[in-house]
Amino acid sequence: MSKKIKVLIIDDSALIRQLLKEILSQDPAIEVVGTAPDPLIARDKIKQLSLDVLTLDIEMPKPVNRHKPSVDVMFRSVSQNVGPNAVAAILTGMGDDGARGIKEMYEIGSSTIAQDEKSSVVWGMPGEAVKHGGVEHVLPLEKITKKILELCFE
């Protein structure tokens, strides 16, 4: 893999931008090409940079399934806008938020991944996604990044 995945991190929190940059930069296949504290700055950077991935700080106007922001809403949006080209991963967390949305992604042909029960602190969200039938790959946390990269380069 000679081509690196170029990422722009968009978040209003300087701490989160820095943490994401440090975490993503540890992977030799990923290049963080910029950060932005708001959508206006991000818009300008998107025009300037040749990006593969955006990370976004999403705040929904109202709770969905008791959650704000809702993972189901995010997955549904990705499903509608990216379609089968998307890769979705659902990691440790309480409840069932994300289970319906990741199933929608799976049904249109997106690749889907859930963290396995053994490596999860709480197997609520990934467990519910598996139970709903929306997961193609169930993997331990330490293997998820590699699988995402493989799926992106297929």
Give a quick rundown of the structure:
The chain is α/β, with parallel strands linked by helices and 154 residues long. The chain has two domains: 1-57, 3-Layer(aba) Sandwich (Rossmann fold); 61-154, Methylesterase CheB, C-terminal domain (Rossmann fold, 3-Layer(aba) Sandwich), CATH 3.40.50.180. It is built from six helices and six strands.
How would you describe this structure to a colleague?
This protein folds into two domains: 1-57, Rossmann fold, CATH 3.40.50.2300; 61-154, Rossmann fold, CATH 3.40.50. It is an alpha/beta fold and 154 residues long. The longest helix has 12 residues, at 14-25. The protein is built from six helices and six strands. The chain has a three-stranded parallel sheet, with helices on both faces. A three-stranded parallel sheet has the order 4-5-6, sandwiched between helices. The relative contact order is 0.13. The model has no long low-confidence stretch (mean pLDDT 88).
Summary tags:
154 residues, alpha/beta, Rossmann fold, 2 domains, 3-stranded parallel β-sheet, 6 helices
**Count of DSSP strands:** 6
What's the level 1 CATH class of the largest domain? Alpha Beta
What percent strand?
Answer: 15-25%
Largest sheet: 3 strands, parallel
Strand order of the largest sheet: 2-1-3
Stretches with pLDDT under 50, minimum 5 residues? none
The arrangement of helices and strands along the chain is EHEHEHEHEHEH
| CATH topology-level fold name of the largest domain | Rossmann fold
- The outline comes out as globular
- Give the termini distance in whole angstroms: 11 Å
**Count of structural domains:** 2
What structural category do the secondary elements indicate? alpha/beta
- What proportion of the residues is helical, as a percent range? 40-55%
Determine Rg (CA atoms, Å). Answer: 16 Å
Specify the number of helices.
6
Q: What is the CATH superfamily label of the largest domain?
A: Methylesterase CheB, C-terminal domain
Question: What number is the mean pLDDT?
Answer: 88
Give the name of the CATH architecture of the largest domain.
Answer: 3-Layer(aba) Sandwich
